[in-house]
Target: Molybdopterin molybdenumtransferase
Amino acid sequence: MTTHNEFSRCVAQYDPHALPVPAAQAITREWATPVTAVERVALRDALDRVLAADIVSPIDVPSHDNSAMDGYAFNGAALAAAAPAVELTVVGKALAGHPFPGRVEGAQCVRVMTGACIPQGCDTVVPQELVERSADSASIRFLADAVRAGANRRLAGEDLARGHAALRAGRVLRASDLGLLASLGIGEINVRRRLRVAFFSTGDELRSLGEPLDAGSVYDSNRYTLFAMLRRLNVDTLDLGVIRDEPAALEAALRSAAASADVVLTSGGVSVGEADFTRQMLQTFGDVAFWSLAMRPGRPLAFGRVWSGGRPGLGLPALFFGLPGNPVAVMVTFYQIVREVLLLMSGATPQPLPVIQAASQCPIRKRPGRTEFQRGIATQAANGANGANGQWQVTPTGSQSSGVLSSMSEANCFIVLGHDEGDIAEGERVSIMLFHGLI
Ligand code: AMP
Ligand code: MG
Model:
């Protein structure tokens, strides 16, 4: 585990007053220590869990050569021997699950259905629609150039070969993977234990649902966006409620969070006006750096480690992210900074979020020197319409204020404007990240 000094050294390499997003990502990534505990779960409980070890295929899938078509199986050598037409005697049939028991000789064939084992002596299947059957169905005729030798045969092991890794450790299991494991006859697997993430909101102005809204107060929405985003990552969540802006209350909440979770997320209390107060408290009992990210929204961020014992090295540690208070900034920093760390700590091998190019439908103002994540509405031109050929187009949502959460609900993507980019002209291409499957 990284020590207090290593943390300070690691963080000191950067200017905390304008930390570029990639630098922040590099530091936080370095601090992600994956959970090691393993649980055995039934296949149906494995969706979205992280595979703990490679799955080596115990069998060939399919286990036998089988037919890809409804048709007739025969020895492909018969094609060369007989031109222009091939005539074969039908000696039996094979259905999926009911193999033909005998051996097929030169001018013979077997009626086969899709998935049926290819009978012994055969290597080729002619589809039924290409053959002419005799009146009594005892023989078939087809043109020799209708099929090639070896056609329409699925080979044993062509899906998954015995002894090969079918799935790799670190994979977040999807629907197809559950089916794939079932095709190997595997009903239980080892997965990493779920990551535990505690979160709370800070602010004297915050009210929880069910409480009356008095003058100057707002309902706490960050705990709901955080809860939902964490759910998508399939981590265990621990909601510690709203904590008042009081050092003793904050300290107690952080210590209890560190005692029971791997990661603690808070929102609020890290902006310029409030950071001093939070910083004072955190400096005593954690290794925490306060950053001003070169990013919009989401400029202020605190990152480090907190300890349940109230001092670095005392009790149990938890990784700590002090996210900004503004509701949009919470979501943006979660996706751009926190998400990857949570996946790494879950034992997963995260893939970068897909970025696609879209033509901006209007000019966008952007100052170089920070990465911006504007909320956008992306549409794809109908294929072929106006010659656009499915090109993506994007328009920023009305308000880009980091307090306007409705901009997130209205949007379906982030427009990602890179650190060095300046103003965008109408029609210029920009990078977008679709929310689909993410938010
Ligand atoms: P702060 O970072 O604590 O200064 O908060 C910045 C802004 O975000 C303020 O307008 C807060 O009222 C608002 N805010 C902070 N936390 C929340 C929350 N949990 N839900 C909704 N708004 C919040
Ligand atoms: Mg606050």
